[in-house]
């Protein structure tokens, strides 16, 4: 009974702490300009694929993973989390996104001595072939195009003290469809702090700080005349495209052991996320671990227009210094059906 009461008290403490951070951040974002008037956040950020989560663990916990992340999926939630990886680890994640799109993620992490870790990753969102249609040929022209978004990142993480770790990612981002493309560079930075008390950890991260992106390519290049009434030479010109930024995201989270028994434990996590182009989001997640073998997860996110409840499972196997884990998550949407995600992790100690 005492364990249950303590677990409930820890959860309330975690929730209160993150609610305070969320309220403070939300208030800052709602403060107006010099006139003091308030406004609602709006934005026109591009590269939206950078907001799609990776890995079955964090997704099953509805995204409450900035403090709990301890594998290569931390490259999405909080790059400081890769410091907790022991030895070398590789991860492959596949997501069946809605609209016929697929989202893929691959990463590898290696130790640099005893104090630092280095990771490389690639994220890809692709549509596959889409047939081109016109007003005259709505049934299709026989030609095809595809949408292909890619992010390639290099992450460096390390330990500053016994309790404080950091992570920094530099990445190249490309958006492409048909025969136009835009490219840019971005940075993610994150920290994790282990309080040493009942497994409680704090996580803070900032994502997608970078350059503006602008489309260019063959479809924007045109040949025109300055005046069609004059017999002058044709000129080559380019249509102007609107510059856009990546979706800047700030995350703050807390996680901790709510309940510990001989061969199982229950982890609770809470995340607050504020984005440059959408309203604030609040995520709560739970993970029950049995004998470091079976993991059952669930969560709920508030503030997202499509996602809410989430769930998933994980299976872990260890043999002769090789750790492997299979994670699955399911995320129902309000308009587009189910999003299924599967990842495989293998590590060598």
Break the fold down into its secondary structure elements and pairings.
Elements: H1 2-30, H2 56-60, H3 74-77, E1 88-96, E2 102-112, E3 116-126, E4 130-131, E5 144-145, E6 147-159, E7 164-177, E8 180-194, E9 201-210, E10 216-217, E11 221-224, E12 235-238, E13 249-260, E14 264-275, E15 281-290, E16 294-302, E17 309-319, E18 322-332, E19 338-348
Antiparallel strand pairs: 1-2, 1-19, 2-3, 3-6, 4-5, 6-7, 7-8, 8-9, 8-10, 9-13, 11-12, 13-14, 14-15, 15-16, 16-17, 17-18, 18-19
CATH architectural arrangement: Beta Barrel
What's the Cα radius of gyration? 23 Å
What is the beta-strand fraction? over 45%
Which CATH class applies here?
Mainly Beta
Helix content: 10-25%
Alpha-carbon distance between the two ends: 39 Å
Major sheet: arrangement of strands: 1-2-3-6-7-8-9-13-14-15-16-17-18-19
CATH overall fold name: Porin
Largest sheet: 14 strands, antiparallel, barrel
Mean pLDDT: 86
């Amino acid at each position: 009974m005492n364990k249950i009461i303590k677990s409930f008290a820890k959860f309330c403490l975690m929730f209160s702490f993150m609610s305070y951070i969320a309220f403070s951040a939300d208030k800052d974002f709602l403060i107006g300009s010099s006139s003091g008037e308030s406004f609602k956040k709006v934005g026109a950020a591009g590269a939206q694929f950078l907001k799609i989560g990776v890995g079955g663990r964090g997704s099953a916990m509805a995204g409450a993973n900035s403090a709990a992340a301890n594998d290569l999926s931390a490259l999405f939630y909080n790059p400081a989390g890769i410091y907790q990886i022991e030895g070398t680890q590789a991860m492959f994640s596949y997501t069946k996104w809605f609209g016929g799109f697929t989202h893929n993620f691959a990463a590898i992490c290696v130790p640099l001595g005893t104090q630092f870790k280095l990771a490389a990753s690639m994220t890809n969102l692709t549509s596959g072939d889409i047939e081109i249609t016109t007003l005259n040929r709505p049934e299709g022209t026989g030609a095809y195009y595809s949408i292909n978004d890619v992010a390639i990142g290099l992450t460096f993480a390390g330990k500053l003290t016994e309790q404080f770790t950091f992570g920094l990612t530099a990445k190249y981002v490309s958006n492409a469809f048909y025969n136009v493309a835009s490219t840019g560079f971005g940075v993610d930075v994150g920290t994790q702090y282990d309080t040493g008390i009942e497994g409680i950890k704090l996580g803070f991260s900032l994502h997608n700080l970078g350059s503006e992106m602008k489309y260019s390519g063959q479809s924007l290049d045109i040949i025109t005349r300055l005046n069609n009434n004059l017999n002058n030479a044709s000129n080559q010109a380019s249509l102007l495209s609107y510059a856009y930024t990546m979706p800047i995201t700030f995350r703050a989270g807390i996680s901790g052991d709510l309940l510990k028994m001989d061969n199982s434990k229950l982890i609770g996590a809470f995340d607050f996320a504020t984005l440059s182009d959408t309203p604030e989001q609040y995520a709560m997640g739970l993970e029950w671990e049995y004998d470091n073998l079976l993991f059952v997860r669930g969560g709920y996110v508030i503030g997202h227009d499509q996602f809410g409840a989430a769930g998933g499972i994980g299976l872990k196997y260890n043999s002769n210094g090789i750790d492997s884990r299979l994670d699955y998550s399911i995320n129902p949407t309000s308009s587009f059906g189910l999003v299924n995600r599967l990842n495989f992790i293998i590590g060598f100690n």
